[in-house]
Design the sequence.
């Protein structure tokens, strides 16, 4: 099997994994919003948003360093020392910082639910080690194993949390279940590392080089988080935690477009790093070209489809009140997600050239703009103001990244195909708006019909070449 065929299969498997995980995550929206105080859901969202941010800061960018440095490395001693040096550093730093960070988050972001601090402290430590395990499988491109583990984790988590909340055991019990499940998965990752490398005492031989690569990503990760998630904190501050519960279902629906981005973001760094180390620059250009084309081929129509169905879908999975308050957020956030996806693909140019400092600067600028706009817009425009601030920040990061990436490596972008894709998405949107939808079965039928209509248009417009069709059929 060719390397391109392997890449396509792995991207497809990661895509399927993300679809399942997102659908499982959507199950929790009605569990928290139907018949329960909306504040419950707001607190759950704040905690999970924090769990996504904290390891990205406290791990010093070291998990991502594995993704850049392990591909192409053939010395087993160097691999083992790199992995154990990074794990040890991450454990030490997070054990020191976790109690303080947990106190701040619980004190100021969850309406002072101080009984959650001990569990959240342990969650931070476990999540930091978990992030190294994920990065290890990603660096070695063990996609099947990653997919099986993550799908199982998310299904078990959703079922456990849904049962506990439905039986009125409260947020603390749900977090305890999350801690137990995440700990078990982390132990599986550690067993995988030990099986491959044995048990080693780290020498920290190359930790300086790894930190020089990883540390700039801290600012980038924090700034990225400000753009993508800090609006939840600011909405909670200006409008109350209940409005976080109104905002997040729409944000979750809009973020479904991420389904098409994350497989590429997961697979491109190790693959492109390997090609770059071996001097295959033309292959890198080819991977970037087709990644952009097929991302937009799927993401742009998703924006139109999700926007057309946002209000009825929100009413089905949450409540009519939430749908009426937040459905207009969906197209704005979906457009933001698409811009972020293009950025995420193009920014791999800076990763393979070890220019992570530039990525950090871009997100610092975007985060400053986003934070300022949120403070101005949320008091006057409410939830819609937060969505608009997010979109403008992503526009800025997109423009800066494309402009400077072209100075390092020509960005292959097919404008004509993008125009055809946009026209096809618009036609699908117009078709869907004429269909009345009030049940989940009607949503499914409408999505299938719209998808078939869109891809028929793409075929008629000649978006697929014969070579591309042959390659897709063979996979």
Sequence:
């Amino acid at each position: 099997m060719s390397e391109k065929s392997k890449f396509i299969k792995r991207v497809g498997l990661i895509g399927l994994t993300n679809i399942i995980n997102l659908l499982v995550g959507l199950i929790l929206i009605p569990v928290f919003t139907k018949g329960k105080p909306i504040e419950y859901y707001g607190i759950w969202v704040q905690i999970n948003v924090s769990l996504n941010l904290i390891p990205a800061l406290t791990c010093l960018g070291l998990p991502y360093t594995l993704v850049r440095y392990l591909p192409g490395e053939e010395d087993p001693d160097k691999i083992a020392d790199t992995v154990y040096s990074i794990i040890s550093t991450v454990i030490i730093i997070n054990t020191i910082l976790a109690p303080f960070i947990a106190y701040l988050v619980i004190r100021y972001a969850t309406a002072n639910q101080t009984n959650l601090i001990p569990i959240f402290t342990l969650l931070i430590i476990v999540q930091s080690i978990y992030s190294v395990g994920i990065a290890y499988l990603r660096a070695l491109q063990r996609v099947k194993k990653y997919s099986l583990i993550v799908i199982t984790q998310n299904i078990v988590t959703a079922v456990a949390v849904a049962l506990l909340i439905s039986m009125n055991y409260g947020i603390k019990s749900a977090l305890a279940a999350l801690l137990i499940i995440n700990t078990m998965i982390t132990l599986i990752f550690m067993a995988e590392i030990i099986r491959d490398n044995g048990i080693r005492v780290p020498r920290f031989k190359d930790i300086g080089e790894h930190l020089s690569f990883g540390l700039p990503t801290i600012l980038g990760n924090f700034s990225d988080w400000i753009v993508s998630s800090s609006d939840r904190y600011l909405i909670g501050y200006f409008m109350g935690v209940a409005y976080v519960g109104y905002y997040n279902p729409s944000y979750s629906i809009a973020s479904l477009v991420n389904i098409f981005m994350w497989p590429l973001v997961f697979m491109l760094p190790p693959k492109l790093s390997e090609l770059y180390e071996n001097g295959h620059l033309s292959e890198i250009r080819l991977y970037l070209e087709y990644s952009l084309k097929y991302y937009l081929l799927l993401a742009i129509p998703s924006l139109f489809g999700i926007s057309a169905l946002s209000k009825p879908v929100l009413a089905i999975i949450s409540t009519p009140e939430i749908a009426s308050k937040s459905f207009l957020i969906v197209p704005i956030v979906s457009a933001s997600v698409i811009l972020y996806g293009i950025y995420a693909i193009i920014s791999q140019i800076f990763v393979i050239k070890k220019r992570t400092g530039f990525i950090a600067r871009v997100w610092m600028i975007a985060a400053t703009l986003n934070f300022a706009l949120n403070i101005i817009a949320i008091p006057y425009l409410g939830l819609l103001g937060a969505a608009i601030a997010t979109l403008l920040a992503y526009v800025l990061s997109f423009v800066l990244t494309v402009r400077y990436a072209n100075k390092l490596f020509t960005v292959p972008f097919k404008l004509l195909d993008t125009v055809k894709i946009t026209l096809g998405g618009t036609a699908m949107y117009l078709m869907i708006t004429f269909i009345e939808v009030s049940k989940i079965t009607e949503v499914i039928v409408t999505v299938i019909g719209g998808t078939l209509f869109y891809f028929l248009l793409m075929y008629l417009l000649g978006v697929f070449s014969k070579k591309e069709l042959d390659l897709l059929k063979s996979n």
Observations:
- Residues 157 and 178 are 6 Å apart (CA to CA).
- Residues 3-413 form one domain.
- The mean pLDDT is 83.
- The two ends are 10 Å apart (CA to CA).
